[in-house]
Amino acid sequence: MADDPISDHDRDSLHILPLAIIPLRTSSLRRARLVKNVQLDSVIEFFDDPSTGSGHLNIESLPHEYGWPEMPVHPDLKVLRNLAKLSSFDVYSLRVQLRELGIPVNENEALRLSPRKAEELTVYMRDFTRPLIQNIYGTDDLEIQCFEQLVSMLRNPNVKQALQKLTVMAETLSIKVEEIPGFLEDYGDIFLSLSYYKQCLDSIEPTITDFLEWLDQLNTSWQGRSDPQLNATCRVIEDTINGTMAAISGRLESFYRNTRDMWESVSAERFRKVETLIKGYHTTIGGQLCALTVKIQAWARSFPSKNAGGPARRAKFLMTEMRQGIERVRVFETNAPSVAALR
Questions:
Q1: Its domain of life (predicted)?
Q2: Residue 279 domain flag
């Protein structure tokens, strides 16, 4: 929508949903964003400026703000109440969740990563494309800058060996050789989703490591030992973060392994199975990463260095902002499908 441009930052975010992509009736809401706050609640954000702060409004306050009657419920309020329940606002989770809710979007490209983000993920995509290149060309030394470049190479294979391999692959998949590039394009986005989640995980890992080190120090300090409630909170947060990070890493590694193995005995059935299983984890991994990212970014903003904030202030932040909503992270893991099906 030309009148409601969506920034690359918003499009690529885990915790920001630009409402311009949702067919709302209220024009000022279409210019706003739905964001996850540090308590992991969804709130309407009308502005966010480093100098003036953020302008947030609870969804249930909208009828009073806009003069909507209690009954019948305004259509925009119905939509926003459903959106507020979503676990993550990343494009891959949104594809699943919006479809389940029957909520359309305003443009076909709204639920795709920005070109800039896709380019950033090239280094991660190589982990997925390397086995395919090796399988077809017999080498992984080719300079592939993006998945689209690989697809283009397969449209015009200039190596005899590659053409022979593509012919065998086409027979295995029961499709024509010229249909292989289009077939692979369907899966490029699946690989891109894993690259996206891996980058999100890598981006927060250093801050989480620093936070857990401080948490361990607090837990073993006199302050931590003498305050049972603080001690218990430390343990819950530490166990939740460690468990969630391990679960995400384990699943991503399992997906990497299965995509590598897939090319060794490729078949249409195996292709579809891997696709279905990975899509089935989008909301789980997206929700976990969204929650961890929001929490740890709030911590980093409040305490940008190891010396920022005294022990009392940090402990207070831990007991309020960090603790509130942390149980939702555990729910994602409880409701996650079994990864054993991939092995």
A1: Bacteria
A2: yes
The answer as to whether 191 is a domain residue is no
Residue type (1 letter), 96: V
CA distance 285 to 80: 23
The Cα-based distances of 248 to 111, 194, 242 in angstroms read: 22, 11, 10
> Is pTM, for the whole model, over 0.85?
yes
What is the token pair recorded at 39?
């308590």
Helices (H), 303-338: 311-317, 326-334
Distance from C-alpha of 289 to C-alpha of 104, rounded to nearest angstrom: 24
Residue 326 lies inside a defined structural domain of this protein: yes
Q: Residue 14 belongs to what domain range?
A: 8-112
DSSP string, 207-237: HHHHHHHHHHHHHHSHHHHH-HHHHHHHHHH
Residues 104 and 135 in one domain: no
First-to-last alpha carbon distance for the chain, in angstroms, is 43
| Cα(27)–Cα(276) distance, integer angstroms | 37
User: Token pair of 163, please?
Assistant: 């053409």
The total domain count for the chain is 3
Kindly state whether residues 204 and 315 are assigned to the same domain: yes
**Is 3 domain-assigned?**
no
Half-sphere exposure of 120 (CA within 13 A, CB side): 15
- Residue 266 exposed, middle or buried by CB count within 10 Å (0-12, 13-18, 19+): middle
